[in-house]
Each structure stands twice: as C-alpha cells, then as structure tokens.
Amino acid sequence: MKLFLTNFHYKKHYEIKDYPLLAILFPFSLIYGAAASFRNFLYKKEILKTYKSPLYTIAVGNLTTGGTGKTPVAAAIAKYLDSKGEKVAILSRGYKGSLDNREVNVIAEDGIINHTVAEAGDEPFWLAKNCPDCMVVTCASRSKAAKFVESKGKYTKLVLDDGYQHQRLKRDMNLLVVDADKQFSNGFVLPLGALREPIHEAKRADKIVVVNKNFESENAKKYCAELRKRFNRPVFLCNMIPQYVYNIKTGVWLDKPNDIFAFSAVGQPQQFYDFLQNFNLCGTKDYPDHHIYTEKDIEDLKKLADGKKLVTTEKDAVKLREIMGDDVEIYALKLKPDLDVKGLLNAC
Question: Is the separation of the CB atoms in 338 and 215 below 8 Å?
C-alpha cells in the first residue's frame, strides 16, 4: 500500500481511472492540511511553547514524505562542522528502530556504536557509520534530546536530521531539502499528495537545498532559480555523485560491466536505479521505505537475481550486514553529495 501511494503521489498525469481515488482522498487532504496549518500558526504565535538550546542548532528536513536526500545533507553538514573543530551531536527521531524513543538513546559517541541497526533505525545507524566523530542520539522529543546533549558539557553544535516539522526545538538555521525531480509531488498534502504540510510553509526555511539525483543538472539549476524567485530564499544545489559500487563486507569494488539485480527500501527507488546505468541492470525489487530485512528476504533476492550481482543502497546496506551469511555477496552504490557546505552555513 505504501509503495502504491508513493507512486500515486508522484504521478505526472492522472487518468480517468484515478479520479475515484482522488475524490475519496481529497476531503481527508483538506482536513490534514488545515490541521498542519493550525499547528504551525500556534507555534508562530508562541501559543505552543518551544525550547531554545544554548547550542547552535541546525534543522535539516523536507516538506514531503520519502527520500529527498536530507540525511546525506545532514551528514555533510555534521562532517564539515567537525572538520572545523566543532563538537557535533546529530539528533534523530529513530524511526522504525526498536528502542523506546520516548527516551534519549545514545546510538554512537566517541566513535563507538552502541546499538544495532534494528535497535537504532536505519538512518541513525547510517549516520553513526558515516559520521564517526559525531554523537548520534535518537528521541521523539528533540528538545529532550538537546537538553541531554547540553548536559554532556562538551558539544557545540546540534544538527537535526528530518527536523523541519519538529518546531518545539527552536533552530538557528532552518534548512529545507527538496528533490529536484520529485519536487513537491502533486502539490497536495497527505493522503492525496506526499506533502507533510502545505507548500507555503517552505517560507519557514532560511535556506533551501535542492538535491539532484540525475546525471545532468541543467533542469535542477532551473528549478533552483524557480524556487529562489518563488520563496525569496537562498537556494543551493547538491548533486549526488555516484562514485563506485563495492562489496559491503570486503569493500572490493565491482568492475564494469556486470549483470546486476538491484533492490532497495528507500522513498524514491527509481533514482537509485538510474544511477546504475553503467551496469547491465537485469531486474529490480522494491521494498517499503525503512523496511527491516530478514534472512528470508535475502534468500528471495538470491533467487530473483539468479546468479547476478545483488546491488543496493548504502542506507539498505547497513541493515543487511548484520544478517548476511558468509555465502552471500551484496554490493552497495557509494554516493557523494557535492554541496557548498561552507557557503550554505555561511560561518554559522
């Protein structure tokens, strides 16, 4: 159902057969949008109370459901700040992790990862792996997590992954991430569209990051100019650059060309598959976003691949390493965000 709705939300053109579902979902979308707008109004008028951390706080998030590339952007920011001598803590909700996120959970600190991917959730675990010098904590209450980090007495910056809607914790910089291709889906809020809140809430952003997951960037540059004019905000382009495909256990690179079978559990799988155009892509398998893999899934994938190389995303790879047998080879695509982080943060 989740995959069906995602495809429905991002359709370029609707057919007559889609109209009944559009009619059914429209009133629910109106209610959802009104509720989201009212909540934002309460925060704007300070009727709903917020907490201001003494630590400089950067929120990275999006308006839509699914993968826009916000987590790699958050990681790029955290690593840049770390390289400048800052002590960075990354706050995440811990979605789909088994830990009780009503409490603060320290996923990683001082280079030590304390929990499995199943416990932490795929995105916090990926952040812990890719930002080894940063602290990663999960909690549904970002303000509670911020206070916990403050109590440590050694951190100087907070980065909120997927924090655009979490307004209870005030931020010094609010960054909105938008997918260059998927944009704002069909323009409607849930459940008719993929928007978590109405488009005009993009004006809450201090800056906008457009993530381009295609090989060409001209359309993405035009879209940056469109957003700059529409919302009167600085807009930065982040090109996701495919680097290589590697064995997730041994690190050995996969030579080209190869027959491959690709699979993923991400919000926008087609963009991942497009990056594999230099290989002979013989088939694909989509799972719902944040899917927790099982050993049976791996066996099913081996059968579907029928001897071809299995390739997935790095986000999926962190979930697969812990359950793979020694007889299984799975590869992951390494992507690098090409983003002017210095210009984006502008000496924050």
Answer: no
Tens-digit pLDDT profile for residues 94-151: 988 999 999 999 999 999 999 999 999 999 999 999 999 999 999 999 999 999 999 9
- For residue range 222-236, list pLDDT tens digits in order: 999 999 999 999 999
CA distance 281 to 274: 10
* 77: region left, alpha or beta (phi > 0 left; psi from -120 to 50 alpha): alpha
Q: Is 189 exposed, middle or buried (0-12, 13-18, 19+ CB in 10 A)?
A: buried
Structure tokens at 157: 């910056």
Contact by Cβ (8 Å): 116, 322: yes
**CA separation, residue 258 to residues 58, 186, 245, 248, 307 (Å):** 41, 37, 11, 17, 11
- Do the beta carbons of residue 249 and residue 298 sit within 8 Å? no
Residue spans of alpha helices (H) in 45-181 = 70-83, 117-120, 122-130, 142-152
Beta bridge partners of 57: 158
Amino acid at 91: L
Fold topology of 56-240+338-345:
Rossmann fold (3.40.50)
Within 10 A of 51 (CB to CB), how many other CB atoms are there?
Answer: 14
Q: Are 299 and 316 in contact (CB under 8 A)?
A: no
pTM of the full predicted structure?
A: 0.91
Read off the pLDDT of residues 155-209 as tens digits, 9 standing for 90 and up: 999 999 999 999 999 999 999 999 999 999 999 999 999 999 999 999 999 999 9
Q: How many helices (H) and strands (E) does the chain have?
A: 11, 13
Answer whether 91's CB lies under 8 Å from 148's CB.
Answer: no
Alpha-carbon span 225 to 184, nearest angstrom: 16
Rounded Cα gap, residues 112 and 129, in angstroms = 10
Higher pLDDT, 304 or 322: 304
